[in-house]
TrEMBL record:
A GO term for molecular function: isomerase activity
Entries under SUPFAM superfamilies matching the protein: Thioredoxin-like (SSF52833)
Source domain of life: Bacteria
Record's protein name: Thiol-disulfide isomerase/thioredoxin
Source organism phylogeny: Bacteria, Bacillati, Bacillota, Bacilli, Bacillales
Keyword Isomerase assigned: yes
Amino acid sequence: MDLHNWYEKGLTPDEYIETLEYHKDGFSRVYDQFTPPEDEHFFQSIKDKQLRVIVLAEPWCGHCMLNIPVLLRLAEKTDMPVRFLLRDQNLELMDRYLTNEKRIIPIFIFIDENGNEVAKWGPITDFTKKFVDGFKKDLPPKDDPGYDEKFKVMVKQVAKSFRENPDFWNNSYESMKTALYNYKP
């Protein structure tokens, strides 16, 4: 299936947001609080390309809670339509965008009006990865009886930072901008 057809079968942003449960408040907070910087030249250059975005995501994903609201704000500034595909229901596409041989999300696939991929972003920035890895290094091995509890605590701490620290939002925005600027048709 070509990317245009994948895009066409995707959920709208409102339909995707309706699937959120655990991260709905965090998602809304990032969306409500994040405003892209004034960058009319960049916004116009993206508008001129008439791009669309396919987002591979899942409602339970903390990295999606952080990055998708930033993408939606960027999409609003650039008139870029967005459609969502749930990763676990669309493995054929997901498997084309593996990270280190794993199905890590979110993945943003930017396509032109003909359905050609022009840029890809995701799943997280180096800044975010370094932050999360700082927490992961303190986790016990997965077979340790205390692992699950400590992992849950870590997830809560990381999600709180994603919801409340604008440095993550701004870093994601700049990373997406770089991915789009680096595209050479």
